[in-house]
Amino acid sequence: MSGRHEVVILRWPAEGSLVDRFADLLTAYHRQTQAEKGEAVADVDGLPDHYRAEVLDPQSAFAADVVLVALSGETPVGCLVLTVPVDGLAEIKRLWTDPAFRNRGVAADLVSTALAQSAERGDVAVRLSVWRWRTGAIALYERLGFIVVESWDERDQLVCMEARRSRCSVSSSPT
């Protein structure tokens, strides 16, 4: 271990307070995203319906997906959802690190763990979309083997990226 941080990545299922803390992470993710899009909301009730449903019942919203939670001690500090593959393509969604734990490798560990899980189950590729203004996230994805691809989403300012298994970095330690 490099000593960068004392964080462990766990795969759900989760119970009790961990579900609530994961919901808190999702809430922070969605509120920040809405604010960055110029559509700030005060609380969960202000989120669009599909995002509110994720926050209120994450176990149902992500029942078929791989949910990874980064823990510092017993405190969830980051999360990521890896969707069930469709035609061999899985998607990373909801990557979030608590701002107090940023720049410690948590996001890289979550993405690397997701890529490893994807490779284990035989996915052809992992894709994701990220807002153009999230340059730090784009740089991280590029370091981990993702490349920009033609958009599958019509929303303006969204960058679509993909990592094929042969390009993916599945190491959780930096080189």
Automatic annotation (TrEMBL):
SUPFAM superfamilies attached to this UniProt entry: Acyl-CoA N-acyltransferases (Nat)
UniProt keyword terms in alphabetical order: Acyltransferase, Transferase
Organism domain of life: Bacteria
Residues annotated as domain N-acetyltransferase: 23-166
A Pfam cross-reference name: Acetyltransf_1
Cross-referenced InterPro entries: Acyl_CoA_acyltransferase, Bact_Acetyltransf, GNAT_dom
PROSITE patterns with a match to the protein in the record: GNAT (PS51186)
UniProt-recorded name of the protein: GNAT family N-acetyltransferase
